[in-house]
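User: For my dataset I need records formatted as: sequence, then structure tokens, nothing else. Please produce one.
Assistant:
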Amino acid sequence: MIKMSDTGYAKMIENKTCKMEKLKTIADFFELPVSYFLKENKSDTVSEPSISYFSCQDCVEKQKRINELIVERDMYMKKYIDCLEDLQEKKSTAG
């Protein structure tokens, strides 16, 4: 699924290294943002990964900005849809 051999995976874990391309593949597979794996695990819960060796602060900041832009985009999309619905309602009551 992520096109990685057992040996390659074991070496990645042993060496605590992972290329960003492979991390993106893993994140896509689990339908999670890459930043999910970049955050240091401060919880003992099983549901969160314990991959604290990915410490790319720049990546985390960029992912935060991407998430903010997604929220902003969704807000504008909702306003746009609301506006279209209002126009459609006005058109149907006027005609």
